[in-house]
Design brief:
The protein has helices at residues 2-33, 38-45, 56-72, 83-92, 99-112, 116-132, 136-152, 156-169, 174-187, 191-207, 211-227, 231-244, 250-262, 266-280, 288-305, 313-404, 411-424, 426-432, 439-448, 461-471, 475-483, 489-499, 504-511, 515-528, 537-541, 544-555. By secondary structure, the chain is an all-alpha fold. The chain has four domains: 37-133; 156-243, Serine Threonine Protein Phosphatase 5, Tetratricopeptide repeat (Alpha Horseshoe), CATH 1.25.40; 247-311; 391-555, no CATH class.
Amino acid sequence: MNKNFFYYFLIILLLSCSNESQTTQIIQEAENIIRINPDSAVNILSKIKQPESLHNNNKADYYRLNSLSHLMTNKAMVDDSLILFSLQYYKQNKISDYLSETLLLAAMYYHWNNDASLYNDLLNEGLDYSLKNNDSVNSAKYHYLLGEVQNNNRNYLNAIEEYKRVIEFDNNAEKDLSYLIGLAYANINENDSTELYLNKSIRLSLESKDTISAIHYLRNYSDILYAQRKYPQALGLIKQSLSYDLNLSSNLLTSASGIYLMLHKIDSAQFFLDKAKEILYQDNTANLVTNYNSIMTLQSVIDYTRGKNIERTNIGRFNDSIWMDNIKKSSLIEEKIMTKNYLEQQNLLITIKEQRTQMILIIILSLLIIGIILEAIYIRNKKLKLEYLEEKSVVLQDLLSNTLKENNMHVKEDFFRKLLLQQLGLIRLVATTPTSQNQELLRQIAQISNENIDTDTLLVWDDLYKTIDSIYDNFYTLTKDKYGEILIEKEIQLCCLLCAEFSTKEISVVVQQSVRTIYQRKTTIRQKLRMNEKDDIISFITSKESLLFNVNETIS
């Protein structure tokens, strides 16, 4: 039965290890592809149904990968609070491989929750850690985000310094960062530096054949010059960008129209504006609202300049349609949220049911294991008890055999044994039992040696003490006089039985106590008499040293 329990325990342990090993493999698969294909990584992670029940190492990795997928797919990180568990776990266990990345994810969580202070603190902590570990990739990311913080706070010089540090770590970012540096210089009216960095960003874009970025930079540089009332220069940049824009963006055409209007070239302004309208009606991009309103505004200015009525109806209808569309989208979003909440609630109920079922199975399994353990203990105790009873029966049988032998050489010893056995009632049993090998005799002996029967009710020690004194030279009286104040009554009785040459097993049967208890009592007697553990108790009691011990005890 003990083997069965071990097998059950081993099966449970193996199942647990197998599940955790499978989870580790899933997390590793997601880790391998998340930076290439985050959506596929999310699908892989979805195989883990109860991440909160994982071991801490897998749990930390799961929450980190989940937050990383949100960051890489531009999803909201408002609810990614569990990334803080990953951060704490990596810090406590000094797992450096993911700590820099996790600091960044935790910072973005605070950024989404509008906690500027903790966001800034974690960015600086992540930058210090990345610099300390020569992590150029993450150092560049932290400098860039800190540059954004400074830029949003209108600390443009500090922002410029952060952006320049990014370029030191990542040369490939020079094109985009030069553009940002140029815009920052424009905000503090550093025109020479603005021109230098914006022209560099345009040049690097054209050299890398990134015409989309070049057009974007040219247009925004044109807007800066337009704000500075440098209309010819602004128009030149627009014309340059139009030469690269084969599809003729409505944004560029609208900007050109605005510049021609400021140069009082109304016909040219109307020409480019009509082109912008033509393209806009075929354009379904996200800039539709801004472009449409810009075109309508410019058209109103041109009409006013030409002495025409200003048409507001089209602008009003368009904006009203946008407003109604937003209401419709808000309603759809609300319905989606309600549906999502309902599905989450249903999933939660299913999860609770699964957990309840698992709990019931665990309880049943635990009860089964406990039952197996209790059964094993019961069988073991029963076996030990039977062995003990059988051993006592054998000892009693040997006592009977030795007592009934004729022509025994040890007359005195056998007389005491016979007297003791008579008091236990065994002589009567022998008279009624044919042989000592009879099973009925063993049963009756075992019954007499039952632990429920108090030996003191069977043995009359006052008579036995007299017998001991008469046979063994007043041993009881000598022991009582010397050690009556040191030894208790049962210890004196044990000494008497030892004097009568009873073995430890025989004494165990007579006094109805375990062999271990008899050994312990003999040890206690030796300690009380200050004897060595291997000294013979009877020899010590009857020796002169014992008498000297008694005198010293009396004096003390």
